[in-house]
From TrEMBL:
GO terms for molecular function: alpha-L-arabinofuranosidase activity; beta-glucosidase activity; carbohydrate binding; xylan 1,4-beta-xylosidase activity. Residues 1-25 are annotated as: Disordered. InterPro entries: Actin-crosslinking (IPR008999), BXL (IPR044993), CBM6 (IPR005084), Cellulose-bd_IV (IPR006584), Fn3-like (IPR026891), Galactose-bd-like_sf (IPR008979), GH (IPR017853), Glyco_hydro_3_C (IPR002772). CDD domains: beta-trefoil_FSCN_BglX-like (cd23343), CBM6_xylanase-like (cd04084). SMART domains: CBD_IV, Fn3_like. Keywords: Glycosidase, Hydrolase, Signal. Residues 879-1000 form the CBM6 domain. Residues 1-13 have a biased composition (Pro residues). The keyword Signal applies. This is Exo-alpha-(1->6)-L-arabinopyranosidase. PROSITE patterns: CBM6, TAT. Catalyzes the hydrolysis of a non-reducing terminal alpha-L-arabinopyranosidic linkage in ginsenoside Rb2 (alpha-L-arabinopyranosyl-(1->6)-alpha-D-glucopyranosyl) to release alpha-D-glucopyranosyl (Rd). It is not able to hydrolyze alpha-L-arabinofuranosyl-(1->6)-alpha-D-glucopyranosyl (Rc).
């Protein structure tokens, strides 16, 4: 097994100035509330705990810090070290039960059995409704409490949710887990969801939410080895605003470190965790991701030993080590050895354990149950009628109408005939972090239920039904048993046509799944590397139901196993007993099959839609295939088979609606141009079909809005490794191309007119607030919701500013013919950006366009405000300047200056960094820098003016220093540039690292 990819058992193991304002988050840790909370105490889930020990830590009327300190004093060193592991053992002598961090709960409780399944997180982002998302979090937290009662040791109340990583690239495999590409929207949704999860008590926690994954995690390929370059502006303006609000509001109780390296240093040892802790008025519990601690010394090779790496993680701020599943020995041994070597002290252990104990106290583990408002929640709280209703409400709220040329809503008359076709027409899919749906309403089910007995629904999956025949004439046959069996090649005619029929579903990038019609089960790799038809759907951490059909000439194909255990991808052979086995190393060694089509999926779909009153084509993705954890997408286009299906159905029925049921944006330019109506939904859980039918037939007026830009083509996207959206020019903030659908886009069955906005002031200082009131009139014939979005653009600045940036929004219900005044706010503090010249946030003096509309591309009203802030003075490079505080760059990477702290710039020949608008005094004479070069031989830094090819002021030679962390001072004389201001470029002529530099004067 590849040690860099964590094995997932059935149980889960899978930084700036003051915080921005959390508009809808409740600041539960204000001084007065905090004082009252500290006096209140906490609760115990351990039977008889209150009577076991009358020590200070069990006194609920004492301050939390006092209780934590007392309990730490009662624990032995070995007991404390054991508590650093994810599975904290019981301490029987103190009558303390076991505690486990990490229950997955992204959109409902996952992996513990049947539970309410809400829309995927990206769908919740599409609701643009924080109040609704908070209610979803509340229901999820309640159900988690219900599961906890069933098995307190296994079903822990420290929940790993939500994902606060901004969705900068739609190819990211885990796109479904996040809310949006916009950090403001992410921050709002994360604050709301964690607010629901933690409950509304000022001190007690319903659950303890943990934000994932800090920081700059957006790529799956080599995710534990890739180092993501995140310059200071991108860090402070794009990453931090997504994570900070939920923490600053007191809702999130911790964060999880990411798998990747950030600026050359593993996220598990990043000093940026200090910034995260500064956002909270309470102790945060920082957890590792699964096998992340092992990776630091293993796949990342950042430290030579686990003792060194675990000491570094503890010092950086990791409080809980998720590693080796339930086996704590690596963690315990590594920390013990680190203590014995003097790499850490017991105070470091106490600090980490104290943080996790703080959470345990707040969850109510050590107090009488009557003190805890959540102790009365029972398993009866799981899958309640109220939660089912909420699941439908959430599914409805995220339905997003992309296009409508009058095809919708459909005729709701009882004799309507609707054809529902496509690979997702009559099924619902769960994703890796989904719970088990207690029931399923598929699109076809929902439409049939809506039409009632008088209407009719025809279905077709659009998948080809084929037979596979070997070169010697034997047909692949499948067991008809419900539990399936081994696929075998048998003499022609054996078993009948149903035993030979296989439906082929194409999911893009050449990957197909095979379903045998003998028993309706999906084919996958099983015992002995043989193929079995025994699965309902593709599933599992290592998805073993994926194949590729590779043409080998003469009309024949070979089958290549394409499952997720990538080190074992081989070809299918046919054994002496006829069994299909994955054991051939090459196509030449594999069995060759002739594919004969029994039924064309496209033809069957065309037949179903021909003559129907309407055709609904449901296409999209299967969440376990082509984009999920450990697997990024290569493209954003629909799979070829789905494109062909859409085109054929549209040609056959002019009243076609395409439903894109997808975990991520998809490029569908042909459909946008030719299909009358398009609708997007995430995989929205158990009520998907009901919600879809309600929108299609006009029972519900859609108001979902896209939380991401939908690009026209994969060609519109940057390299996956380019995280810096300012540099790459991506997301709606910086993309200058023509998107297929803009961020915030979504249509309605109503029309809305925006009146003239009224501002309570037009000039504010750096700490001021503007209230914007805009009348919104529903000029249509249906009641509906409008999502009013407010963006700003700074007109003049020292640095490149976003084209526009979301500042506030409100989803508001407006009855037909009525007008509602929407109140939005702009905080001057939110207009701040990171000033690299002085290492702090700054609000510049400038005018700002205020843009109000229905999407980032549909601006209805414009106005302007003046902000009195400050002017950034010319850059003084005669003062010591950190190399990573550049303004612009090309080719370089940001690296770790030392293993413990600091950033350096790492470059190769032709790379450069620029420092804009620098003051150039007439007495300028030299250049001095701290540089390192691990390679033999020398390289140099060229100091140029105006451009990378501009006037050469001097060249500083950098000799080999013997190591990338070994810095030496290098100097050179400079020709006089002339007094004034200019852009200074440092151009690399070879491989080296630069940590800091200064221009010197005579």
């Amino acid at each position: 097994m590849n040690p860099s990819i964590p094995h997932r058992p059935p149980a889960p193991s899978a930084p700036a100035a003051g915080p921005r304002r959390a508009r809808r988050g409740r600041s539960r840790w204000a001084a007065a509330a905090l004082a009252a909370a500290l006096a209140a105490g906490l609760v115990s889930a351990v039977p008889g705990a209150a009577s076991a020990d009358t020590g200070t830590f069990r006194d609920p009327d004492l301050p939390l810090d006092t209780r934590v300190e007392d309990l730490l004093g009662r624990l032995t060193r070995a007991e404390k070290i054991a508590m650093l592991h994810q599975y904290q053992p019981a301490v029987p002598r103190l009558d303390i039960g076991p505690f486990r961090t990490g229950t997955e709960a992204l959109h409902g409780v996952a992996w513990l059995g049947e539970a309410t399944v809400f829309p995927q997180s990206v769908g919740l982002g599409g609701t643009w409704d924080p109040e609704l998302v908070e209610r979803v979090g509340d229901a999820t937290g309640t159900e988690m409490r219900g599961f906890h009662v069933q098995d307190p040791a296994a079903h822990g109340l420290n929940v790993w949710a939500p994902v606060a990583d901004p969705l900068r690239d739609p190819r990211w495999g885990r796109n479904e887990e996040g809310y949006s590409e916009d950090p403001t929207l992410v921050g709002e949704m994360a604050t709301a969801y964690t607010g629901g999860l933690r409950g509304d008590d000022d001190f007690y926690l319903k659950t303890a939410p943990t934000l994932k994954h800090f920081a700059a995690y957006n790529i799956e390929a080599d995710r534990d080895r890739v180092s993501v370059t995140v310059p200071p502006r991108a860090l402070h303006e794009y990453v931090y605003p997504a994570f900070r609000p939920a923490i600053a509001a007191g809702n999130a109780t911790g964060v999880m470190a990411a798998y990747n390296l950030i600026n050359g240093r593993p996220a598990h040892v990043t000093p940026l965790l200090d910034d995260v802790r500064s956002w909270s008025e309470h102790d945060l519990m920082v957890v590792s991701d699964a096998y992340g601690p092992s990776n630091v010394a293993n796949s990342q090779g950042y430290y030579d030993t686990h003792a060194e790496s675990h000491a570094a993680m503890l010092t950086a701020g990791i409080d809980s080590y998720t590693d080796q599943d339930t086996n704590p020995s690596l963690t315990v041994d590594a920390v013990t050895e680190a203590l014995e070597q003097g790499l850490i002290t017991e105070a470091d252990v106490d600090r980490a354990v104290g943080r996790s104990l703080s959470v345990r106290f707040r969850l109510g583990e050590f107090d009488p149950p009557e003190r805890n408002p959540y102790s009365g929640i029972t398993p009866e709280a799981i899958d309640t009628p109220q939660h089912r209703k909420l699941a439908r409400e959430a599914a409805l709220a995220q339905m997003t109408l992309l296009k409508n040329d009058g095809a919708l809503p459909l005729d709701p008359e009882s004799d309507t005939e609707v054809a529902v076709v496509g690979p997702l027409a009559d099924t619902l899919y769960e994703d890796w972090y989904s719970g088990t749906m207690p029931y399923e309403v598929t699109p076809a089910d929902g439409i049939a239920e809506r039409l009632g007995e008088g209407g009719s629904v025809a279905t077709a999956e659009g998948a080809d039904r084929v037979t596979l025949t070997t070169a010697d004439g034997r047909a692949v046959t499948a067991s008809a048993e419900a539990g399936g069996g081994v696929l075998r090649a048998q003499e022609a005619g054996g078993g009948g046509e149903d035993a030979r029929a296989i439906s082929v579903f194409e999911w893009g990038e050449g990957v197909v799944t095979l379903r045998t019609e003998a028993n309706g089960k999906v084919v996958g790799l099983g015992e002995g590397n043989r193929l079995y038809n025994d699965q309902e759907q593709p599933n599992g951490w290592f998805v073993q139901q994926l194949f590729r059909m590779e043409e080998v000439g003469d009309g024949e194909v070979v089958l290549k196993y394409a499952g997720y255990d990538t080190w074992n991808r081989k070809y299918v052979s046919v054994g002496e007993d006829g069994a299909l086995t994955v054991d051939a190393d090459t196509p030449e060694d594999a069995a060759r099959f002739r594919v004969d089509t029994l039924v064309s999926g496209t033809d069957a779909a065309v037949e179903a839609v021909s003559g129907a009153d309407a055709a609904v084509v449901v296409v999209g993705n299967m969440p376990f295939i082509n984009a999920r954890e450990t697997d990024d997408r290569e493209s954003i286009e629909l799979p070829q088979a789905q494109r062909e299906l859409v085109e054929a159905v549209t040609a056959a029925n002019p009243n076609t609606v395409v439903v894109l049921e997808s975990s991520y944006p998809q490029a569908v330019p042909w459909a946008q141009e030719h299909v009358p109506a398009l609708l997007w939904t995430s995989h929205a859980g158990q009520e998907t079909g009901s919600a879809l039918a309600a929108v299609l037939f006009g029972d519900h007026n859609p108001a979902g809005r896209l939380p991401q830009t939908w690009y026209r083509s994969t060609d519109d996207l940057p390299a996956m490794h380019d995280y810096d959206i300012i540099h790459s020019g991506h997301t709606y903030q910086y993309f200058e191309g023509d998107p297929l659908y803009a961020f915030g886009h979504g249509l309605s069955y109503s029309t809305f007119e925006y009146g003239k906005p009224r501002l309570d002031r037009r000039r504010i200082g750096a700490e001021g607030t503007v209230t914007v009131r805009v009348p919104v009139t529903n000029t249509g014939e249906r009641d509906g919701d409008e999502v009013v979005q407010l963006y700003t653009h700074q007109n003049r600045s020292r640095v490149a500013q976003p084209i526009q940036e979301l500042r506030d929004f409100e989803r508001v219900h407006v009855e037909a013919g009525e007008t509602v005044t929407v109140e939005l706010e702009i905080d001057a503090a939110d207009l701040a950006f990171w000033d690299v010249t002085r290492g702090r946030e700054v609000v510049e003096t400038a005018s700002h366009d205020v843009l109000i509309g229905s999407s980032s591309a549909d601006i209805r009203r414009r106005t302007q405000i003046e902000v009195k802030g400050e002017r950034i003075p010319p850059r003084d490079l005669t003062e010591t300047t950190r190399a990573a505080d550049f303004d612009r760059y090309s080719g370089i990477a940001i690296a770790d200056e030392t293993k413990a702290d600091g950033m350096a710039v790492e470059g190769s020949a032709g790379d450069w960094i620029a420092f804009d608008a620098a003051s150039l005094p007439s007495r300028l004479s030299g250049f001095t820098a701290q540089a390192a070069r691990a390679q033999e031989g020398g390289a140099a830094l060229e100091i140029r003016l105006g451009s990378p090819e501009g006037r050469l002021l001097g060249t500083a030679e950098v000799p080999s220093t013997g190591g990338k962390y070994t810095y030496e001072e290098v100097t050179t004389a400079l020709t006089r540039p002339g007094a004034g201001h200019g852009d200074v470029y440092l151009v690399f002529t070879g491989d080296l690292r630069l940590s800091e530099f200064a221009l010197t004067k005579r």
